[in-house]
Amino acid sequence: MRLFVFIALILQSLLSANASDKPARRAPFYQEVNENHDIRFLNTGLVALQKRLDLIEQAQKQIEFEYFIVHADKSTRLLLQALVRKAKQGVKVRVLVDYLFVGTQITPFFIHELEKVGVQVRYYNPVPLASLPSVHYRNHRKLLSVDDQVALVGGRNLRDRYFDLHSEFNYIDRDMVVDGPIVKTIRASFDEFWNSSFSKALPRPKKPHLNDLVYRKGSRLEANRKYREDLFRWNKNEVEAQEFIIESKQDLALKQRVAAATNSDLKNLPGGNCNKLVFASDVPGVGAWAQDRNLRLSSEVTFEWMTSAKTEILKESAFVIINNQTKDLLQEILDRDVNIKIMTNSFYSTDLMLTTSIFFDRASKWIERGISFAAYSGDRMPNHEVFEDMVGESRWGIHSKSSLIDDESFMIGSLNFDPRSFNWSSELVLICYDEKLTGMLKESIEKRWDNSIELQTAESVAKHRFDRVGLLNRLGHYLIKFPASFLDHHL
């Protein structure tokens, strides 16, 4: 059901309005800081998981934790247990999660247990799936902030597949750790979302009692049966939530294994100093007014930054959909002979066929205009160390949202290059102006590009469209193709 809702969200986002005037910019949704910051890249999943655990452990005063997707699996157990330990030590811990894909995973039963030990939790926009159009407005931001000193931002959500721990499918993603003055602004933007009227704490469902009105209807036999079923389910949910935040032997073993595997990499994280940073975030909002371009700072700042390119734009994004909102921007950049290279997912590497179908149907046109594309192969990156017994020969897909221009500056954040990110989801981006750091990021992206399929002609698009894809997925593409083609004609 949620998959169909997500597809509906994407389709409606394709019809969103074009960008208009330059937005009014103010802290904490926008800030440019010309001071020294330490920047570190997290390019692999296990390292990204351990760095999160390390940052939580280092906290002395406060932790802000904000994510779009949180699944109740192995990696999330470790992270929530770490938050619980800090809350018990007196650290102020606040967790903000988007409701759409989290509400059935980290349920109010979990929230109740976390609140009992001092972890404050709120859902963003907890409306029913049928609440249109309100359900379209999601919080896609991803950040971890510690003591107003260090923040971690990027593309990863909280799920095993983001941390190289899934047996069937894993993401190639990227986060950035920033240490410096801009972290206070990032934290202040969290406060705006936390304190907004769209963020709410939901109570745990009341424990069933036989004298409840619902059990007084119908026959006594049927009422007793329903009561026993409801009580069993309620007790099961309570026990699962209680056990989830208590460290088991399996949790401890995995935690120790991850720490040992990442010890060397964490001591040698790629990075350095950045003396000019720009942070931009959308304003929290639900309703048509939230699409006002004055409030969509992440995309507006991104578009403005891209127009400053003189020679090259190199971009990787999980989803790439070019429509009326971005076609003039890209064409203007191409008309200045700027080289644009964009890497995204192939049909084999994607976990969302609709966006990939739209991308492939539009790629040829933009290749003719001068853009170079690469579709990720779906294979693990060379020399990418994983736990073979857990991951094996899983598929891999691009999930990072990273860009650079002119070997001078780069951007990392939660913003995909698609209309959903531009118009409906609340996003954040962080731009660093530094040639050395940009060179490090470029090297990482180019290695991923080398593990992709280059799409340089319309013929190559047709040739590689269904590489390694089974019959069912091919049929799925053609079922999607007709509405996608209709939208393409009207956008």
Estimated structural class = alpha+beta
The major beta sheet can be summarized as: 9 strands, mixed
CATH architecture: 2-Layer Sandwich
The CATH H-level homologous superfamily: Endonuclease Chain A
Structure summary, number of beta strands: 20
Estimated radius of gyration: 23 Å
The CATH topology corresponds to Endonuclease, Chain A
Which features would summarize this protein structure in a list?
disordered N terminus; 9-stranded mixed β-sheet; single chain; alpha+beta; 491 residues; globular; 20% strand; Endonuclease, Chain A
Reconstruct the topology from this structure.
Elements: H1 2-13, E1 30-33, E2 37-42, H2 45-58, E3 62-67, H3 74-88, E4 92-98, H4 108-116, E5 119-124, E6 143-146, E7 150-154, E8 169-172, E9 175-179, H5 183-195, E10 199-200, H6 220-244, H7 249-267, E11 271-274, E12 277-281, H8 297-307, E13 312-316, H9 324-335, E14 339-345, H10 353-369, E15 372-376, H11 388-391, E16 395-398, E17 402-405, E18 409-413, H12 419-423, E19 428-433, H13 435-450, E20 452-455, H14 458-464, H15 471-490
Parallel strand pairs: 3-4, 4-5, 8-16, 13-14, 14-15
Antiparallel strand pairs: 1-12, 2-9, 2-11, 3-6, 5-10, 6-7, 7-9, 12-19, 13-17, 15-20, 17-18, 18-19
Helix pairs in contact: 2-3, 2-7, 4-6, 10-15
